Amino acid sequence: MCHFKIINRTSNGFLLFCPKRNLYNVSFNNLTFNFDPSEMFSFISFLDKIDTNYWEKEYENSIYEKKIPIPTLQSNFIILLNRNELNELRILLDFKTLKQLLKSGEINYKIIYN
User: What Pfam families is this protein classified in (predicted)?
Assistant: First the structure.
């Protein structure tokens, strides 16, 4: 069994690391990925190269509100993100600026005043 260490988190996701298996786990919205270190840094590099303006223009007439595609190895499955989700995913996987605190507006929690 792996004892994951929390590396980073955002309002919609978290990044974990298992030292025993040298494995990263990324959970973002309803997606979960497991990466070895080389896969992880390849994925980060891929995300950094996405031109959001290009994809939003390319799919401006799409019926989907999310316009930025992330291809997968499965030919019939593409992940679609919007600009804000892509930026949040980049922040989640940014190893240079880890351990940022969430702003109060980023905390998705219902406050009940007594």
Answer: DUF6686 (PF20391)
